[in-house]
Amino acid sequence: MTVTVRFAPSPTGRIHIGNVRPALFNWLYAQKQGGSFILRFDDTDRERSTEEFAQSISEDLAWLGIKPDRVEKQSERFALYDAAAEKLKEAGLLYPCYETADELERRRNRARALGKPPVYDRAGLKYTDEQLEKFKEEGRTPHWRFKLPNHPEGDPFTFQRTEVHWDDVIRGRQTVDLASLSDPVLIRGDGTYLYTLPSIVDDADMGVTHVIRGEDHVANTGVQIAIFEALGAPVPFFGHHNLLTTASGEGLSKRSGALSISSLREAGYEPMAVCSLAVLTGTSHAVEPAANLEALAEMIDFTGISKSAAKFDPEDVGHLSAKIVHSLPFAEVKWRLETLGIEASEAFWNAVKENCSSIKDVTEWTPIAYGQITPVIAEEDRAFIAEAKELLPEEPWDETTWGTWTKAVKDKTGRKGKGLFMPLRQALTGLSHGPDLKSMLPLIGRQKTLDRLV
Q: How many angstroms separate the Cα of 441 from the Cα of each of 174, 382, 400, 410?
């Protein structure tokens, strides 16, 4: 069996780190199994779906390193969904219902008050001709529900326990009782499809073998297996991973913009920091930055995913990103520095990278090595700086020059520790912190050093 997976985002907003968790699980699993990955836009909501959001999702996935083998749009596949709906109607499994949202809510409240589960009572199967005529006069249009196989044959109004089982590739053996669920609405009153039917039709038509998604879909899976079987379609394997939440336990939302991938990219974070955090949080693995997606794929072990929600600290993105930046060799960052307009040397990169949380941070240090800065010299240090200037060694300079110079200054002035090094750092860089000056001094050069020791 060739593994085929899919990621099916709705292009109604920008995706965030919680959204890319299932995208990455699917992509990495396909890569590890030698399978294929489908990016399928769930854009049946024509009012909220936009091409702009679809494009941004594609760009975000590409930035993370996810390259789909196939891209599809559900808005181009309505004929398939219409045919499936007709098949279910002809089989008596898709039936019209005319209740309003308020009417349904009153029924649920009444059932709760009587101590009964708020399950839809299939009133849509009991309409008289008079009721149907009245609905027509009122201008009502039906929504369509799928009749779950949770009743004795020929008696849809007697609900009986009907268990659906599957071996979840992440959570193990799972069971859903269809009698505890209402018949799902597959088609809205305005004739548009909810995601369920198009998703099932597409999974079957595209040969999806594994559906890997969040644990919030566990109950849905029992329903969907019933619909797969009603359509005579092969049932894929299912896997449900835990969800990412903030450290306080709050869920992530497109609408809040929390940790959107585009904002993380614009902030200069490394894509592998985002991938590592999204995948490894809530697993048996330590959350450390993986070298690349291939290495991350090797870490995936579905049995090591926790059954509880995966809480994470948004600051971890920055910590992981900084670790990656600190380990990057010059050959991997040279072109990225050039896109920032920085013509830097390997010596410069090695000198400053430990002080950079992102590649963009390099711009903070380039003026110190290559440009003009404003020296900071306290009045009480002017005589000291003048003496240090007189002791500045001749070129050529290397990484031993800083030690040679400060030793000579210490011997001459008697200063040591912070009283020795801080005035020199502030004069040479204009800052009280920064990269090791033994590496920076050769980059600054003797003439710029003399100019700053004024």
A: 64, 20, 10, 18
Tokens 């520790």: give the residue: 417
DSSP string, 87-145: HHHHTT-EEEE---HHHHHHHHHHHHHTT-------GGGS--HHHHHHHHHTT---EEE
Q: According to CATH, where is 3.40.50.620 located in the chain?
A: 4-72+195-245
Q: How far apart are CA 427 and CA 441, in angstroms?
A: 12
Is 269 buried (19+), middle (13-18) or exposed (0-12) by CB count in 10 A?
buried
Positions of CATH 3.90.800.10 in the chain = 82-180
Find residue 7's DSSP bridge partners. Answer: 39
Which phi and psi angles does 248 have, rounded to 5°? -85, 0
Q: Give how far the C-alpha of residue 303 lies from the chain's centroid of Cα atoms, to the nearest Å.
A: 21
94 bridge partner residues: 146
Looking at domain 4-72+195-245, what is its CATH homologous superfamily? HUPs (3.40.50.620)
Q: What is the pLDDT of residue 252?
A: 64
The whole-number average pLDDT for the span 427-443 is 96
In percent, how much of the chain has pLDDT > 90?
82
Residue 113 CB burial class (10 angstroms; 0-12, 13-18, ≥19): exposed
Burial of 410 (0-12, 13-18, 19+ CB in 10 A): middle
Task: Copy the structure tokens of residue 363.
Answer: 């711009």
Fold topology of 82-180: Glutamyl-tRNA Synthetase; domain 3 (3.90.800)
pLDDT for the residue 309 = 83
**Is the pLDDT assigned to residue 254 strictly greater than 60?**
no
> Residue 173: CA atoms inside 13 Å, Cβ hemisphere, count?
1
State the pLDDT at residue 424.
Answer: 97
Query: What are the tens digits of pLDDT across the range 255-313?
Result: 555 579 999 999 999 999 999 999 999 998 999 999 999 999 999 889 899 888 888 78
Rg (CA), the chain: 32
Residue written as token pair 């809530």: 282
Q: Model pTM?
A: 0.89
The DSSP annotation for 432-454 comes to SS-S-HHHHHHHHHHHHHHHH--
Q: In this structure, which amino acid lies at residue 321?
A: S
Instruction: Please tell me the distance from the alpha carbon of residue 412 to that of residue 384, in angstroms, as a whole number.
Output: 10
pLDDT higher than threshold 80 for residue 435: yes
Q: 372-452 is classed in which CATH architecture?
A: Orthogonal Bundle (1.10)
CA distance 73 to 57: 13
In percent, the amount of the chain with pLDDT more than 70 equals 97
- Asked if 440 and 429 count as a contact pair (C-beta separation under 8 A), the reply is yes
